[in-house]
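Our consortium's second objective concerns turning raw sequence data into structural hypotheses that experimental partners can test. To show how far this objective has progressed, the report includes one record in full. It was chosen at random from the queue rather than selected for favorable results. The single chain below, 484 residues long, was entered without modification.
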Amino acid sequence: MLNYNEMKKYIILSIAALSLLTSTACMDDYLNEPSPSSQGSITPEEAFSTSSNATAVLAGMLRQQRTQWDQFNRTDVGGLYSLLFARAVKGSDIQLNENWYGNDYRNEDREPTFDRSRFTWRSYMMIGRSNYFIEGVEKSTGIIDTDKPVLLAQARAIRGFYYFQLALEFNHAYKYNPQAAAPPIYTTVNLEGKPMGTLEELYGQIISDLEYAVENSSTSRIDNSWVNKQVVAAMLANVYLSMENWSEAEVMAKLAYGGNVTNALNTIVNYQPSGFNDAGDKEWLWSMTQQENQSNFFFMAPHAFFSPSGYGNAFINTTFYDLFEENDRRREAISVTNPNFDNDDIRYLSSNKFTFSFGGSMSIYRTPEFILVAAEASARQGNYLEAQQILNQFKATRYRGFIEQNLTGTALIDEILLERRKEMYGENGIQWFDVKRLQKGIERSGNHSVRINLEPNDNRFIMKVPQEEIDNNKHIDASVNNNR
């Protein structure tokens, strides 16, 4: 396989989003030296002629996650980070002083012609590139056979991950109705539109991709912006969590963080509640890394939105803040924004959990998320002693003078879910993800300026299929959005 220091170019294969059905495949190259092609670009044959070239293609695919997608040129519809942050602001723990992501905060972002639903459907762009890559590797005569499974695992992990995003955004909880209409499945390079499938079929494809990727991925990688076995296990843990397959969720979560809570986390002394932009932190599992000369600047979410050096329009809800105990070190990141603000002002409480800089990095997954997945999954199976031990070990790294708890049943599960909210606010849309999969609601209180409450399985939890998909895919018509 490719040694990273020997890589000479970063290549992005840009196949049209399958949903649009209007474009043919093309290539955009990011080269730090001239291409071998006389045209200044690289052909598909060259891209998959060696393992090194194929790995460079993967580098481009991963980089694409943090760039602007397609024709969107707005701060709140950027790359993967904006999809995740939009979920976070739909909940009750953080709030926005309008500006960017305001439609998401008001839960008014789901109509067929709105940018959020159109942008989220662009997950097919990453799926299409994965299909292109898989086909290129499988047909290659230059890549040695022993390298192919590892390369294919990377692409199938990315494909499975983005199909999961579509499953989450365009459907209710899996348990609510596995036969609900779900986005079409494409596993080959094919610009012919397909009809909607079922959620059960979509989850079947996601599991197939991710199980293959877990089996064939390496534990090593260039840095944590790359996918390895632990990252794929984290992806699969969340899928199983959504399906309430508790036993498999626990197995995958433990694989993701290594099975040893203490080793996976910083100590109570070393833990830093502020400055979350360092991909080198031991608790970061998967990231979107960048440097100042490759920055997406003020698009960076959530960092630019919490930070006063960015937009400074994201704040902490007062009811949520009251959930933090005095000895919780995470509380150190939250402070009164301005003593002249009343406590019912939406701007009253700020957080410096996320530090903004053009060279800072964005986390996708951190190990605490999956430690708490393992705790919840264990508790759901009635293994309260183990679940409590995991939770105690975790809390000992966040609470000064922590005294071990001895909870069982619903009280233990509720405590685990609360810790997920407090640990992961602003990241990965955790509160939204948890209440949606568990068919609960969201109630806003405190100093929210928009008091929208979502009932369990509220239609505002799901997107409508974009109008452009309906217009361009003969197998999907406007009725797909009936009762959505």
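The partners drew two points from this record. Residues 148-169 form the longest helix (22 residues). The CA atoms of residues 112 and 465 lie 6 Å apart. Both points have been shared with the crystallography group to help prioritize constructs.
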